[in-house]
Amino acid sequence: EAGVVQSPRYKIIEKKQPVAFWCNPISGHNTLYWYRQNLGQGPELLIRYENEEAVDDSQLPKDRFSAERLKGVDSTLKIQPAELGDSAVYLCASSLGWPAQETQYFGPGTRLLVL
Amino acid sequence: RKEVEQDPGPFNVPEGATVAFNCTYSNSASQSFFWYRQDCRKEPKLLMSVYSSGNEDGRFTAQLNRASQYISLLIRDSKLSDSATYLCVVNQAYGNKLVFGAGTILRVKS
Question: Looking at the complex, does the CB of residue B86 fall below 8 Å from at least one CB of chain A?
Fold first, then answer.
């Protein structure tokens, strides 16, 4: 069974430029998460989707970050404009619905470097 | 205070050693607990869940002390392949939200 797919794997951009990340979750997983992981830290949740609904976006910096999950399958996370501090690994994860929801499967991540 | 705190290490141990990691969490209403493993430049993967009664999976034993808000992971007979970062993870009571610690680095050497 295919795991969580993310693209691109690496991205280098200049500050103030836009960037977008794509995620395709494991087939049948209704819940999708976007995390940001800074060097030496654990992943921090940005947004969680249940199907196509964003149920927790309290940690998403809404002035520059946006996300969508059309049709409740794959998802896109966008940053516009990017800042130097946005350099990090952006991880997508998915899980089954309740009660197995707690087991999250992560994709390989997108490494973003903002210059 | 961070919601989940871990000793960052690194823990440098020889093969065959027993090593223990500790973790504390601040939200007393947290409902479930996990250890994830993350290899260098890879994604986190679930290692094991942590139950109040304690649980064991081969060389790995996890313990939970709700009264002290403390979680532990014990690795026996360490292997070179155990070298990784171990993330303590807590599912907070509200919003079914996983909160990750910063991780503890383990290096097993021959």
Answer: no
Check residue B93 and give its pLDDT.
Answer: 62
Using an 8 Å CB-CB cutoff, list residues of chain A that contact chain B.
40-45, 48, 55-56, 91, 98, 101-104, 106-109
Q: Can you list the residues of chain A whose pLDDT is less than 50?
A: none
Residue given tokens 């007393």 in the structure block: B28
Measured distance CA(A92)–CA(B6) in Å, rounded? 23
Name the β-bridge partners of B109. B14
Q: A-chain residues within 8 Å CB-CB of B34?
A: 102
User: Per-residue pLDDT tens for B16-46?
Assistant: 999 999 999 998 888 889 999 999 999 999 9
Q: What is the DSSP string of A20-46?
A: EEEEEPPTT--EEEEEEE-TTS--EEE
> Which of B3, B21, B35, B96 would you mutate first to test chain A, the one with the most A CBs within 10 A?
B96
pLDDT in tens, B46-63: 999 998 888 999 999 999
| Residue B32 contacts A, CB cutoff 8 Å | yes
Cα gap A92→A109, rounded to integer Å: 7
